[in-house]
Description:
Oligomer: single chain
Structural class: mainly alpha
Number of strands: 0
Amino acid sequence: xxxxxxxxxxxxxxxxxxxxxxxxxxxxxxxxxxxxxxxxxxxxxxxxxxxxxxxxxxxxxxxxxxxxxxxxxxxxxxxxxxxxxxxxxxxxxxxxxxxxxxxxxxxxxxxxxxxxxxxxxxxxxxxxxxxxxxxxxxxxxxxxxxxxxxxxxxxxxxxxxxxxxxxxxxxxxxxxxxxxxxxxxxxxxxxxxxxxxxxxxxxxxxxxxxxxxxxxxxxxxxxxxxxxxxxxxxxxxxxxxxxxxxxxxxxxxxxxxxxxxxxxxxxxxxxxxxxxxxxxxxxxxxxxxxxxxxxxxxxxxxxxxxxxxxxxxxxxxxxxxxxxxxxxxxxxxxxxxxxxxxxxxxxxxxxxxxxxxxxxxxxxxxxxxxxxxxxxxxxxxxxxxxxxxxxxxxxxxxxxxxxxxxxxxxxxxxxxxxxxxxxxxxxxxxxxxxxxxxxxxxxxxxxxxxxxxxxxxxxxxxxxxxxxxxxxxxxxxxxxxxxxxxxxxxxxxxxxxxxxxxxxxxxxxxxxxxxxxxxxxxxxxxxxxxxxxxxxxxx
DNA sequence: CTAGGGTTAG
Length: 539
């Protein structure tokens, strides 16, 4: 049967969407937890591979009727749904966390003294809101476990594993994985171990990531093609395609391979500018009886785009045609974007024309790129027209489209436009992310709009967007350049208090500015903080 | 998450 929390998320999702994007829906529904026979049968379009071009008038009623039949199927859900409306718990909980307790234990104590009760929705939201803030995240997670009648879902465990990995707390991360395993309830899945491997790879612990893969069966997870691809992808994306290749060599004879396995390597070699290795992998792929597909070719096209070798890009498009491999929206996006960035705007627009004549439909990401290159070329009016036109074509702007529009509005100091777009996003139920807020924050620093800055910080919090080290760096730097040193110092302190390691450049600019203004006392304070920063965990 | 993101320079 469909897990309750999952149903609730689905419910919230369908309640909030004006323009359904099927991808997250499928992600929500299509997993082993949800495929049991007792559940009302899912609408068939959810499982169909054609996730694009489903229109709203069709999807929403279909989903709504499924949700209704599900409610009948499990009447207890009605109660949960009505309690969804009480968003005061999250506010009260957040207020307590604002006290910035120094350790998770103290968070637990504070929460024990409150009359809050844990629920899946509440914990999920807190973990999102504090995903870059370990003390409150771990505190709430630990506290919720002690609440009677509450049990963490596997997804919440997975989120916590991910948060610990992101914060480089690898020992704690492993402890938690073992704790999940001890529950003996199939809590550790490939989703869990995927996060583990990815975080280890990102932390440069390549060997440990491989070890995690080797030991998958200890947690009852199968070492299949999907698991191996996950590991290889994690390694290849973190600048270590060589490690990915080693994994490939070691396991290729005892693990089933698929096209994806080879594409991950091709992509990795291309990204690392090792074209010969990429070509060798392509040959090896053929030897294994796999035919290069659009993904394989697109990786090569991207490589030549990076090299600005557009003659070679054309050749590859031709080769694809010969081989009967149709380029898709991704392929066209890459080619157009690269031409636009290389200031060959007319050639870029030709790609758009070619795409249309080839019968390939643009998607939101494609339009975002088009808007980006037009704006970059100073053609703001055309960019705006495309932004309006895409909706008429039935493609709703996504977070990247809005971020692109907001970035350029900020770059041209069109404050009002930028904020209106942010508001429009909300109306469209399109959630902003850190990259959406970054240009807005930067603009506020530059123009010394402290009230707007404050508004944005609250906006972020309300949208569960947790500030990361990069965003703190942007704030400190921007405020330094605008002479708002007091605020710059307080963000620096906040950053350090979250165990983030400031970059040298961030530290340097702050010290320099404090020196310039002869603020000796504040400078000493910052130096003291910096000396207490724990050096990055190594080996 | 097998491929498409502009990020931290004036």
